[in-house]
Amino acid sequence: MPQHTITLTDQSLDLDVGDMTLDAASLGSAAGGYSVAKRTLQAGRSRGVDVVTLDNGRLRVSVLPTRGMGLWRAMAGGLRLGWDAPVPGPVHPSLVPIGQPDGLGWLAGFNELLCRCGLQSNGPPEFDAEGRLLHGLHGQIANLPAHRVDVTIDDDSGEVALRGVVDESRLFGNKLRLESIVSLRPGEPRWTITDRVTNISAEPGELELLYHVNFGPPLTVPGSRVLLPIAAIAPRDAVAQEDFQTWDQYGPEQPGSVESAFFIQPAAAPDGSTLAVLHNAAGELGVAVRFNVQQLPYFTIWKNRQAAVDGYVTGLEPAVNLPNPKSFEKQHGRVLELPPGEMRQFELTIEVLADAAEVAAATAAVGEIQQATPPQLHDRPNPDWSAP
């Protein structure tokens, strides 16, 4: 298959193509229905952030190579996927104080549709016995820029694949490389993220990885629901325990409320494939997040129920581990160990459900998987899953 590959950024060559647009006409491609646009934002805290927007005629997906290959937002017709964060952005990583003493500086840059948490750690802040910060909230990868970015376009199918390479490495520490590919085909209501994480050190490495996929209105409104096939579920803490009977439902804004989270071991088809579905109250609009439990065996539903101006949002979060302090996860065997040179691959597909029939088909797929696995419903925190 004839392909065009264009390098957009390469740190080793001190190369950046600047603002540009690619489409079938400019490339002389047989297939049409796509475009790729790269630009560098210039104002406020976004100054210096590269945005690459992939358009397949049905979807527009904006990727942030400067922010760890996260996804800023997506548009499907008139539907915006994402949320209204109180942080205007995207925020340049140099302005996010991830090392501040309370460990919560990560929140100053959080506003994406999708960001990764990891790679060395992905849970809450953790401190040593003297109170010094060991691991900040959700790790570093979302605030590291890609050092190489290229785009490949298939001339026959029009498939567009944006590839970025991000290193999370330092002297006397973990040395992991994330190679992320965001791909979509003309006219399809979905896109796929394929990530490969490699230990590029001569020493063993450790990996935690969580995909923080975030949605606000119109998908999270009173009466909205989230569904996924469940092998086991438990509230994260006492706050979630009080809300356990409505873990799959969304209510009105609650100014001043505390975030709530539920830990899940998803059920799956025999090949490991599974999905989570979020839809509005009428069941006529939604999204499906598809993944494989052989790669991502745990799932968190996170609900921030504050007022809209403070960031009403839900997170659908497949992961290799649960978002607890790293020492707790390591104690329970959920931190991946990567020998020198080893690579792990993870794949995630986000699909827009544009009408009631598509929502019904996705929810039926959840029900079909669930039939084979009786769910274990724990109405109290599981001591093996939740840190004291």
Task: Explain how this protein is built.
By secondary structure, the protein is mostly beta strands. It has 2 domains: 1-203, Beta-galactosidase, Chain A, domain 5 (Distorted Sandwich); 211-336 and 348-388, Beta-galactosidase, Chain A, domain 5, CATH 2.70.98.10. The protein contains 4 helices and 26 strands. Strands 2-1-12-13-14-15-25-21-20-17 form a 10-stranded antiparallel β-sheet, covered by helices on one side. Strands 9, 16, 18, 19, 22, 23, 24 and 26 form an 8-stranded mixed β-sheet that branches. A 6-stranded antiparallel β-sheet has the order 3-4-5-6-7-8. A hairpin with a 5-residue loop joins β14 and β15. The longest helix is centred in the last third of the chain and has 16 residues, at 356-371. The termini are far apart. The mean pLDDT is 96.
CATH class of the largest domain: Mainly Beta
CATH topology of the largest domain: Beta-galactosidase, Chain A, domain 5
Largest sheet: 10 strands, antiparallel
Distance between the termini: 55 Å
**Number of strand segments:** 26
Count of helical regions: 4
Q: Spatial order of the strands in the main sheet?
A: 2-1-12-13-14-15-25-21-20-17
What would you call the structural class? Answer: mainly beta
Helix content: under 10%
The chain-level mean pLDDT equals 96
The total number of structural domains is: 2
What fraction of residues sit in β-strands? 35-45%
The CATH level-2 architecture of the largest domain is identified as Distorted Sandwich
The Rg value, from CA coordinates, equals 20 Å
What is the general shape? globular
| SSE series | EEEHEEEEEEEEEEEEEEEHEEEEEHEEHE
Low-confidence stretches: none
